[in-house]
Amino acid sequence: xxxxNKIIITCAPTGSIHTPSMSPYLPVTAEQIAHxxxxxxxxxxxxxxxxxxxxxxxxxxxKADDFMRFLPRVKQACDAVINISTGGSATMSLDDRLEGAKxxxxxxxxxxxxxxxxxFSGAGKRVEHWQHDWEADYVASSRGRIMYxxxxxxxxxxxxxxREFGTRFEFECYDIGHLYTLAHFADLxxxxxxxxxxxxxxxxxxxxxxxxxxxxxxxxxxxLFGDDYIFSAFAAGRHQMDxxxxxxxxGGHARVGLEDSLFIAHGELAQSNAQQVMxxxxxxxxxxxxxxxxxxxxxxxxxxxxxxxxx
Length: 311
What we know:
Pfam families: BKACE (PF05853). The chain is of the alpha/beta class.
């Protein structure tokens, strides 16, 4: 792993798992997403991992128009690296999931390194009243869906987004096998280091939120990639801050955001993404590390620069 005293904090403000009924603080309109993203950047997030939502009902959206309602606002208001999801949600086709990335041509995109069961149906148990008619079924039916990326899909994303636009990737690895898939594509020469590996823990269907799993993932990544990768991690739900802290202790970076957890402490909803970023920043600085600026993150990740995007 490439180690540094400068810690990249990524913030994922909205995602596609949580629904409007789960928290009044979840940003879903373009104005809310822009405000949340900029606030997270001002709090110390160097990278913003962004999904889009439908303007009327907060449904996850792959549409370029929905991304473009907030991307220019975020870029104008802060210098953070904008990272567009190619994962979208498990209800979207690959062409759907690529629409926003192809329109935006961003510096960075997320890329799931394989298929997995992505069951978040348990999140619906806390909801007493649903605001929109799509929410309850969307959450409950996640038990029967696969978040799908096979090797052909992965290659398409690498070529149609990476090669085409000079976009680099946040490789989301939900299990150890995903590291080997990443190594396969590195061997083919379709991607080049430094590889940003985002370890994802605590999704029902992926690797569990046991700190020993995080250590094991770093050990295996070291064996596969040596110094050619940068590691970051996050865990879903209540393990969010624990895993961010451990990742930093191991020499890596960390991600927070309402996409991953709606809470700031046990039983207490986070009132903003910036609140989570500030909590992680406090931990990072208490450990004697420094929070990386967007410019420092760009240098570490080998990005093309914010002037070379399409928004």
